[in-house]
Amino acid sequence: MRDSGGCSLREVNRTEKVDEQKLLHANYDFEHIGNGPGPGGWRMSPNGCFRCRDCEYMMSGDSSASDQCFCGHLFKDVEAGRIGCVDGDDAIGVYRVVPKVAP
């Protein structure tokens, strides 16, 4: 499937994701909370991220949109209310997003 610009839609989405990841890392630090779901299950929050250990993609904890990492191992299905990883839940790093402080 191609858009009017001649690029495949998947390529456009990957390019946008790469740009979003660069911006995210430029503006925020990530505080590791742990791996896998907590005692009450997965905590969805726009102030949190989930990290794929294979491609290091940082997935937003915002519950408004589904997502998948670059390598396809980490996924978020908001309709099912599920975060998952082909390597098991303990392979998912859970992080708090902290704005970087200007020097």
Largest sheet: 4 strands, antiparallel
Helical fraction: 10-25%
Q: Mind telling me the C-alpha Rg? A: 14 Å
Order of helices and strands, N to C?
HEEEEEEE
User: What's the number of helices?
Assistant: 1
Classification by helices and strands: alpha+beta
Total number of strands = 7
> How large is the share of residues in beta strands?
25-35%
Task: Explain what this protein looks like in three dimensions.
The structure is a single chain. The protein is of the alpha+beta class and 103 residues long. Helix content is 18%, strand content 33%. The radius of gyration is 14 Å and the shape is globular. It is built from 1 helix and 7 strands; from the N terminus they run H-E-E-E-E-E-E-E. It has a 4-stranded antiparallel sheet with strand order 1-7-2-3, with helices on one face. The protein has a 3-stranded antiparallel sheet with strand order 4-5-6, with no helix packed on it.
